[in-house]
Structures are given as C-alpha cells and as structure tokens.
C-alpha cells in the first residue's frame, strides 16, 4: 500500500528541486521484460556458476563461447521497449536532471533521455577486442568472432575484473554534487562502487528511494512498493 502523503511530498520535492539525480537499477527495466540480475527468477537463478565468474574478463577471453551463449540467451532483448518509469525519468532529466543507471539495456536512450550516464556501459556498444572496430548488434548476433580480423567481439559493459570507465565515474560524481534531490529506484544498492555515489551528495540534499525493499542507507525517505505504481502517480 503506497502512502499518498509520501507521494504528495515527493511531488513537491521534485517541483522545488533545482537539479535532480536519479540512480536506477534493474528494477526499472523488469517491467519492460528485462530480467533482474539477482532476484529469484533473475538471470543468475539456476545458473551453476556465479555471476562474478560468468561475466568476467577471464571468461570472455578464455571461454568466449560460454560467455557469448550466456549473454545472448540471458541479457540481450533488442525488442524491449522503455516503460513509464524510463519515460518519466527522461522527461524530468531533460528538464532539470541527470540519470545514472546501472542498466546496460539501452532503454533510457530509447526513452529519449539526453542527460544520462550508463555507469556500467551498454550492451549495444559492441566492438572487436582485437581491431577495436564497432560491430552492430546484428553482426554480433551471428557469432562472437569478428569477420574482419578473427578477434573476439564483446559488449561494452564493465565485466568483473574490469574498472568503471573514469569518464562515467566523474560525470556521476558531478551529477551528485550538483543535485539537491536524489531519487533512487529499482536497485538494491549493494553493488560497489555504484552504491558509494551517495557519499558525493550535497549535505542538505534530499534523498528518496522507491523500491520493493528497504535499502541499506540512513537518512532516506523510503517508499516501499512497485516503482511503476509510484511513477504513474508522479
Ligand atoms: Zn576485429
């Protein structure tokens, strides 16, 4: 049951804010048919190896076929469409905000968000690890070996064992420092360094979390519920 007083307060905070940063995760895209990473029936559920093992640079280079089969079967949903949450966030960001998303599914782009950082990269920024040439999704869907040079093709997402792109990190820190309102949604907020971004917020910035479960941080206005129901009211 969503408390309507909380919704009204959040609406007021959004209206009054000078600059808003949204921090989002998988829960925002599940309504578009993209499976969550860690929850039950998420993509790791029932898989014999840990996500840290499968989605690692080690696996990409040493077991490219296994890596390729996993990402193609479980992570690519090229026909998925943005839902109301992506669209609402895009609308607010294009007016006075930034989005920092952990999602790699391209849906915020499709929603028209012009102020966004894909913290962990994008599945659709595909390139060859040998010649560095960009490769289309259509070509990658046919196989992981680059036709031009025989190199291994990969998605431009941060794998376990790899560092966050420094430009993404600095853009994210800037957004946090410039915002007087932070809205977290669809993320359990336990994956580092993403969860650490909260440390860069302004001292007086308000923080809201719209999530199915409580997130482990203090001083947060928390709405426990389905983000789709909440964003539909904003
Ligand atoms: Zn190549």
Please give a structural write-up:
This protein has 234 residues and is α/β, with parallel strands linked by helices. The protein has two domains: 1-34 and 82-120 and 163-234, TPP-binding domain (Rossmann fold), CATH 3.40.50; 35-76 and 122-157, SIR2/SIRT2 'Small Domain', CATH 3.30.1600.10. 32% of the residues lie in helices and 18% in strands. The protein is built from nine helices and nine strands. The relative contact order is 0.19. The model has no long low-confidence stretch (mean pLDDT 93). Zinc ion binds next to loops.
Task: Set down the secondary structure blueprint.
Blueprint: H1 4-16, E1 20-24, H2 51-54, H3 57-62, H4 64-74, H5 84-96, E2 97-101, H6 107-110, E3 116-118, E4 121-128, E5 134-135, H7 137-140, E6 153-157, H8 166-177, E7 181-185, E8 206-211, E9 221-224, H9 227-233
Parallel strand pairs: 1-2, 1-7, 2-3, 7-8, 8-9
Antiparallel strand pairs: 4-5, 4-6
The structure holds zinc ion (ZN).
